[in-house]
Amino acid sequence: MAPNDSAETNGGTNGGTRGPAAGRRKAARYIVPVAVAGVAAATIGLVPALASSGDPDLPKISAQKLIEKIAASDTEQLSGMVKISTDLGIPSLGGLAESFAPGGAGGKGGSSADPQERMTELASGTHTLRVAADGPDKQRVSILDDTSEYSLIHNGDQVWAYDSKSDQAYHATEDRAGKDAGRDAGRDAGKKSGHPVPEGVPTTPKALAEQVLKAAGPTTSVTVDGTAQVAGRDAYKLVVKPKQSGSTIGSVTIAVDAANGVPLKFTMLPSSGGKAIVDAGFTKVDFSKPDASSFTFTPPKGTEVTEADDAKAEHKAGKGLGDLIPGADAAQLGAGGKGAGNTKIIGEGWSTIAEITTPGGTGIPSKASGDVPAEAQQFLDALGDKVTGKFGSGTVFKTRVVNALMTDDGKVYVGAVTKDALVKAANSAS
Q: pTM of the prediction?
């Protein structure tokens, strides 16, 4: 089917001499690239890709009308299966990350059912989810493995998470004042306890689509590019692309249900080409009312239950970007924010870059300074590219979406832009 009318959107747019284990623990204090991973995880919502079968013959529709159809969709009941594949290009931390996982060598013994830890697994690899929703107060998401599953259940003011593999459960009581915001599978669960479910990893194509369309603005091209069939449903393909050069994002394709306006599939492609960065879509979907039993949970006998307040005491809740790069939370890449404190926003739209000044104006510790174990220095050297310019010298840490330049004088430039764009921004700021 030939492409339909195009339209633009309006509106505004993250020393080891005591053995390997000791070395890993000390090295972790210096792993700046983890900040890049955090920003990339938060940026998932800014873009993903479309696999389709068939080409249904549907009436033509403009991009603006299709966006309005998504916004007007009042479908709140559904169940089905979702497949999410994410390839952000983030190197595996291997045993280093393992040491700091809950219960690991460097961890603090948290529950394996804690959503703050488990839901971030969706930021890499391929996962199959079983989802169900019945309005804003009832949602369930289960991450399925070959022999086990992890489920997050939101029912009214109660939130349960259960890991069948370890037979551990997590329980939180939701702050009812924020209930209307909890449409994405318990997203606001546990706010009363100060230990919320992570919001940076959407679990449905709808949640992903809402984020990318919210970020779209004058720097964005939005068109309808034919039709597709997803999970047995006829759909239009909405294609979102940056007009600006320098972005790592090539395009986002959203398959929108032709009947009810629900996004069925969401795909992000990199500007450099190759496989999708994120590809999330329904493989099965049913828009009838799910069975009430989908949203009930009673811990099996013998299950170890962790209460949210206890989890908060174990470790700081909800480590966000601000815990990884000071000021990164305020940057809100692509959202048009002006930053705060030690953060400055450069550019707009898809080419937005956050300039962050680190406390004390210090750059990456080096082996020469005696502050970094040889193991950590080798890790940093393998991840980063050394660059120079008018700003001096620094290191660029890369993923397929978000790149970060950390200068030797303690400034960080981060955004969903290319290495050259970061160097240019650093030179201009000098």
A: 0.74
* CATH number of the structural domain 6-13+15-24+47-314: 2.50.20.10
Return per-residue pLDDT of the chain as tens, 430 residues. Answer: 444 544 544 444 444 444 544 444 443 333 333 333 334 334 333 333 333 445 899 999 999 999 999 999 999 999 999 999 999 887 544 444 444 444 443 444 568 888 887 888 888 899 999 999 999 999 999 999 989 999 999 999 999 999 999 999 999 997 644 443 334 443 433 333 344 444 445 678 988 888 888 888 899 999 999 999 999 999 999 999 999 899 999 999 999 999 999 999 999 999 999 999 999 999 999 999 999 999 999 999 999 999 987 655 454 433 333 332 233 333 344 333 444 457 899 988 899 999 998 766 555 555 455 555 666 666 666 668 889 999 999 999 988 999 999 998 889 999 999 999 999 999 998 8
Q: In angstroms, rounded to a whole number, what is the distance separating the alpha carbons of residues 283 and 264?
A: 9
Phi-psi region of 210 (alpha: psi -120 to 50; beta: other; left: phi over 0): alpha
Tokens 């249900």 found at: 257
Cα torsion 214, 215, 218, 224 to 10°: value is -70
- Whole-angstrom distance, CA of residue 238 vs CA of residue 226: 8
Q: Where in the chain is the domain with CATH 3.30.310?
A: 321-429
In the chain, CATH 2.50.20.10 sits at 6-13+15-24+47-314
Architecture of domain 321-429: 2-Layer Sandwich (3.30)
Other C-beta atoms lying within 10 Å of the C-beta of residue 127: 18
